[in-house]
Amino acid sequence: MKISIGCDHIVTDIKNHIVKYLEDKGHEVIDNGTYDNVRTHYPIYGKKTAKKVVNKEADLGIVICGTGVGITTSANKIKGIRAALVRDVSTAKYAKEELNANVIGIGGRITGIGLMEEIIDTFISTKYKETEENKELIKSIDDMIEDGSYVNDEHLFDDLLEKWDKGYYHD
Amino acid sequence: MKISIGCDHIVTDIKNHIVKYLEDKGHEVIDNGTYDNVRTHYPIYGKKTAKKVVNKEADLGIVICGTGVGITTSANKIKGIRAALVRDVSTAKYAKEELNANVIGIGGRITGIGLMEEIIDTFISTKYKETEENKELIKSIDDMIEDGSYVNDEHLFDDLLEKWDKGYYHD
Amino acid sequence: MKVIIGSDTKGFELKAYLVNFLSSEGYKVMDMTPDPNLNFVESARLVSEEVLKEEDNFGIVIDEYGAGSFMVANKIKGVVCAEVSDEHSARMTKEHNNANIISLGSGIVGKTLAKNVVMSFLNNNYSGGRHQIRVDMLNRLA
Amino acid sequence: MKVIIGSDTKGFELKAYLVNFLSSEGYKVMDMTPDPNLNFVESARLVSEEVLKEEDNFGIVIDEYGAGSFMVANKIKGVVCAEVSDEHSARMTKEHNNANIISLGSGIVGKTLAKNVVMSFLNNNYSGGRHQIRVDMLNRLA
After folding, report:
1. Which of A148, A118, A131 is nearest to A51 (CA)?
2. So what's the pLDDT on residue C51?
3. CA-to-CA distance for A65 and A47, rounded, in angstroms?
4. Looking at CB atoms within 10 Å, which of A96, B5, B76, C122 has the fewest?
5. Hey, how many other C-beta atoms are within 10 angstroms of the C-beta on A133?
6. Is residue B170 part of a domain?
7. Is residue A105 in some structural domain?
8. Is the pLDDT of residue B24 over 90?
9. How many Cα atoms are found within 13 Å in the side-chain-facing hemisphere of B85?
């Protein structure tokens, strides 16, 4: 399968481990970064990873940050993405089987590597079981965002990053 | 506080991280090993870590293996040890507050580093709140092992290790 | 600050438990789903829209797994919904993501843990600072 | 193979749910605590002693957190009790530790997760081999 993956700078090592884990299993992985531990911003990588999925360049997406919340939220805010943020295998299975989830999010500082691997394996291998009821729920979710064209805007965050560079955001 | 810590060869890196984390917070840590990734056996380190606690050389123990099950079970089988194996902060707090738990076990391949740190912080900072009821429960638990002298037997596993070396145990 | 809460059918019992617990702790709680027959699209929308009315509102959305409610709430601009089942995530997402809703799976978390996850969220504060650029980015989406 | 199950007062409801679920799946289930007024020392002992009677028995002990039952069961020679709240631990502890009892916290895990954790345990097998020396060591203790 073709998997799009992304992370923030807190969990790059864990992302790298998962990339290798998936490649060893024969999957093709698109690594959207980040690629090092230099401070950056999770919505950039959530959006990049999601874009490959909605544009059909990848079958599924995996996103990882510290808790998973920030990057999975950013991915889910892309039209066509149904992302599940999980800490257990059961929810991963349900999200794929019933909601045809196309992105799975995990907290790299919350969930250990062994559990993470089983969550991802289950997410990839579980098949969506279409019913009239869940088709309608999925349509309702997908219809919530009307104009999703911002997914293709490469400059969506430019002004914010400029403010960052100027020191506007400081602790 | 004085903390006795032990792990198996699967999670040595995680144990090392926690040792540093605790020392940075000003705790004194007794690291019972294992110290590298050479295949070894979790009961050796569960017993060593527990021994320091029952002999009052340490105030509390921390044990980590893949799931936490094996090493925490071995620690709990030492007379005087009440070990809790957790994946959440609530159980760590309860175990200390109500059962005066003196060892905490965590699965290094199950729980991420951030959650693990918060579990350990909570376990260390929570105080036992003695009641008549929980005192009696604790006594019942402690009385279950009658002769606990094997904790001081350094040769308890010698014959098993000899069988291991002779290739008796093989996959 | 108000706690806005809602659930679908399967989350109804956990919702009732949390409404009761939070009220007894002195929180002002608004139950958006007295009707036990809603699906999670309906319940999560009702909660999200109410949460957005005031800046310091906090929402809780519940269904069996928490996954459906998370998808729905996070499609709405201004919502940062955290699907959580541990106390550390609850604290960190309040501090770093300024999450305004949490999603719970009634089939996944027990009541004691659910209660403690909610309290871990309520007892912590957003850190702001460098984290604000990421929240500003999230608000560009959806 | 029999499933031997028991709980203290707080775990009683989850126990009833699992008895019902496992029976409907065709498992032979023995409820050791029809009395809802036991504490976890009593309930975990009853389950452990029954489990040890036959080699392929599997036990489930339940209290609010699972921690007390874990402490009690693991004081008994021959018991390897796993306190688990996730499916991966359930599988791995069956494969590697040959655990014969799992401990569940009714306040920590929801019913859906509890059910799946139990099934993950029941659907896997002990690997033996190199893992046996560790189990032999555990059996030297307590």
Report:
1. A148
2. 98
3. 13
4. C122
5. 10
6. no
7. yes
8. yes
9. 36
Domain that holds residue A151: 2-165
Q: How far D97 CA lies from chain A's nearest CA (Å)?
A: 16
- C-beta atoms of A115 and D112 within 8 A: no
User: D110 vs C112: CB contact, 8 Å cut-off?
Assistant: no
Can you give the CATH number for the domain in which B90 is found? 3.40.1400.10
Residue C52 forms contact with A (CB below 8 Å): no
The distance of A113 to chain B (nearest Cα, Å) reads: 5
**Cα–Cα distance for residue pair C131/B107, rounded to 1 Å:** 30
Q: ipTM score here?
A: 0.97
Which subunits count as partners of chain D given 3+ CB pairs below 8 Å? A, B, C
CA distance B78 to B145: 8
The verdict on a CB contact (< 8 Å) between C86 and B114 is no
pTM of the full predicted structure?
Answer: 0.98
Residue B77 lies in a domain: yes
D2-141 under CATH 3.40.1400.10, yes or no? yes
**Beta strands per DSSP E along chain B:** 2-7, 28-31, 60-65, 83-85, 103-107
Looking at the complex, report in whole angstroms how far the Cα of residue C117 sits from the nearest Cα belonging to chain A.
14
Distance in angstroms (rounded) separating the CA atoms of residues A103 and A84: 6
Which one, of A29, A99, A36, A109, lies nearest residue A71 by Cα? A109
| Alpha-carbon span B23 to B26, nearest angstrom | 5
Q: CA C128, CA A168: separation in Å to the nearest integer?
A: 12
Task: Give the percent of chain B with pLDDT over 70.
Answer: 100
Low-confidence ranges of chain D (pLDDT < 50): none
- Do A114 and D113 count as a contact with CB atoms less than 8 A apart? no
pLDDT at B72: 98
Average pLDDT score, chain C: 97
CA–CA dist D127, D110 (Å, integer): 29
H/E element holding A107? Answer: strand A103-107
Tell me whether A118 touches chain D (CB under 8 Å): yes
Indicate the number of domains in chain A. Answer: 1
* Nearest-CB residue to A73 (from C65, C74, C136): C74
Calculate how close chain C gets to B116, using CA atoms only, in Å.
Answer: 9
Q: How confident is the model at residue C47 (pLDDT cuts 50, 70, 90)?
A: very high
- Best of A86, A98, A118 to substitute, by most chain D Cβ atoms within 10 angstroms, is A118
Provide the pLDDT confidence category of residue B119 given band limits of 50, 70 and 90. Answer: very high
Mean pLDDT over residues C94-117, rounded? 97
> Which parts of chain A register pLDDT below 70?
none
Residue B171 pLDDT class (50, 70, 90 cuts): confident
Which residues from A are below 8 Å from C84, CB to CB?
Answer: 67, 69, 87
**Which of the four pLDDT bands, split at 50, 70 and 90, describes residue C142?**
confident
**Which residue bears the tokens 């402490």?**
D71
- Chain D CB within 8 Å of residue B140 CB: yes
Share of chain D above pLDDT 90, in %: 99
Chain-chain contact of D83 with B170 (C-beta, under 8 angstroms): no
- Scan residues 79-98 of D and list those with Cβ closer than 8 Å to B: 80-86, 88-89, 92-93, 96-97
